[in-house]
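Review this chain:
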Amino acid sequence: MRFSWMNFCRVKTEKESKIDLIRGKFIASCAGNVESALTLIPTVILFLSVLQLGSIALSRVVYAGVSDGRATQKTFLGVDSASTSHTTEIPLSGGGSLYVVRDSHSLPSFSPLLQQGDNFTSVGMSVQ
């Protein structure tokens, strides 16, 4: 690397100036390209839609486990911790009872796939 002491500017080698020339032509040819925007927009929509589907599947599995936990808590402790859940006690013929917990959930949407979000009911059961 050589420096010019006259104006304290860096003097580029021939190889560096060729690389800058190639970069300048490549960047100038891609700047403002409409095709890149036309492919980027559907790609972002597809990515958000797949992300929405994945979050829907994960949230349904998680909330089903939460409902099972609430039913088990009702069985062992005799109290229902959530005021939003609907607990039903069904007596069994041989003694004991079956607890069924229904929870309603509403999740927001962050992609154009489901504009209104995801509304579902999770059910948990436990036998006492």
